[in-house]
Amino acid sequence: MSSSLQSTKKFLVFLGKSLYTVLEALVSTIIPKPRKNVAGEIVLITGAGSGLGRLLALQFAHLGSVLVLWDVSKEGNEETCKLAQEAGARRVHAYICDCSQKEEVYRVADQVKKEVGDVSILINNAGIVTGRKFLDCPDELMEKSFDVNFKAHLWTYKAFLPAMIANNHGHLVCISSSAGLIGVNGLADYCASKFAALGFAESMFVETFAQKQRGVKTTIVCPFFIKTGMFEGCTTGCPSLLPILEPEYAVRKIIDAILREKLYLYMPKFLYFLVFLKSFLPLSTGLAIADYLGIFHAMDGFVDQKKQR
Ligand SMILES: NC(=O)c1ccc[n+]([C@@H]2O[C@H](COP(=O)([O-])OP(=O)(O)OC[C@H]3O[C@@H](n4cnc5c(N)ncnc54)[C@H](O)[C@@H]3O)[C@@H](O)[C@H]2O)c1
Prior knowledge:
By secondary structure, the protein is an alpha/beta fold. The chain has a single domain, classed as 3-Layer(aba) Sandwich (Rossmann fold), CATH 3.40.50. About 50% of the residues lie in helices and about 10% in strands. Strands 3-2-1-4-5-6-7 form a seven-stranded parallel β-sheet, with helices on both faces. Helix 5 (about 140-165) links the parallel strand 4 and strand 5 (about 170-175). It starts with a helix and ends with a helix. Bound molecules: nicotinamide-adenine-dinucleotide (NAD). Nicotinamide-adenine-dinucleotide binds next to helix 2 and strand 2. Belongs to the short-chain dehydrogenases/reductases (SDR) family. It comes from Carlito syrichta.
């Protein structure tokens, strides 16, 4: 076959595949994919000691999963463990783990493999925020942001992905942020760590896809502010388009995205449009929109919870 005939054939196959996938996506927006059953799955949640991590644990308890809870805070994690048992969890295993320490992640991961088994749903949720302007932020705090919000994801993948690949079964969940999609003043180190987490999770999705490891799923979550206390005092300039989210709502959406094996979940929905606008609007228009949405002043009232304690 001549090379021009070959490239025409390749292009037609590509066109057919593209049309098919667009149609498939349209059908699945009308008839959503059924929710998968996670009863008996071993679900590891990092940062399970409060906020989203705790609420996720309670939801997975209702769904009959085996829970593995990690947190640097013993007190918070034990409380989640108790609440999950009260919520009907059949098996809950709580571990103290400082996710910013690579060796500790590997050590506790080995313990989990021996004591519980192969983790099949890994939720990288632990997170911290410094909330300081770049030049006011000490180096060690910026390094900590990266260690917890991003680098911990590398180590947990190294620890748990091989078994998911071997079993052709697993789900990797990355809790990033709207700050992983759009840069925000006063949040430079946090944004950078969340962009990194998103980039890593997306690349690993492509890597597993290209290697035909189709049993390993990925979900990347990018929420705007949620009322968990992490971003206490932060504001939105436009609550109708960019509302500060209720934790219960956010967790409901996250669980739904995991069970329907959605790759991306941005909350609120307006974020999808914002990211689309960012890709082509003139810079001055983008900045005017950011100003209208109150982005430049969103962090002005930030209250550092760690300093309060
Ligand atoms: N709250 C928001 O507005 C918001 C918005 C977007 C994304 N997020 C992300 O959602 C995730 C959960 O945040 P949240 O709102 O529930 O906050 P949170 O502070 O209530 O929970 C974070 C948990 O992570 C734990 N943690 C912190 N450092 C750790 C470490 N080194 N090792 C292990 N655990 C550690 C904390 O002890 C805490 O239990 C975070 O990744 C956060 O960045 C939050």
